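Progress report, Aim 2. The chain analyzed during this reporting quarter is listed below.
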Amino acid sequence: MDPTPDVEAEAARTLATIADEVSQCRACPRLVEWRERVAREKRAAYADQEYWGRGVPGWGDPLASVAVVGLAPAAHGANRTGRMFCGDRSGEWLYRALWRAGFASQPETTSRDDDMVLSDVWITSPVHCAPPDNKPTIVERDTCVGFLSRELAALPRLSVVVALGGFGFSVLSRLYDLRPRPRFGHGVEVPIPGGPTLPATRQQPSPAAGGGGGGGGGESVAASPRARDPARRFAAHVRGPAQTPSPDG
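Predicted structure tokens for the chain:
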């Protein structure tokens, strides 16, 4: 049964509240210092642009059945544009794949104010501020993960959570308290009892050398009985055979 308009409105309000909290968060001093320094100094190619320089909220369709979870914003990508995984190479790949699969209204997004519209998908990450060298600390990860948990809980139709890389997969495995811990692998998908399916991804070249961050790239093979059609639609455009997960001890 589809959610009622009241359910959709409540999801939208909750996600908007989380987004506001993310954009104002200053809980991690190292990340705050880095994101703001990058925003001041800028990259020469973007010298005429005003950087976002804050925590980057997740975004998408409040009625999404699929959530895409990366690592963190890129220093000169989402930390510049203010839109998750917008403005870096891995984001370019991701949004093209979403567009080909019918989740996005256009093949690219360049700012949070452009005309991109997402349907049936929510895009977010465990860490919402750009970390130095694209490497958040364990403390930073654990400080920020509550936002991710609340975002996923607010999506009333969520059936598939796509992890773009090992970092996101590990965080989600902990978030859903999977035991034994599944081992990350290309094309692995893990049904979560009473919850969504968690698929792993195949890594693509990261833009870290050229600006860092983003989702780390990935090829999803998501599938779930409650969202098989949209998940397979995404999978058809990003390739990769499904595998059986192996426990990680």
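The CA atoms of residues 149 and 175 lie 7 Å apart. The first strand starts at residue 59 and ends at 60. These observations will guide the mutagenesis work planned for the next reporting period.
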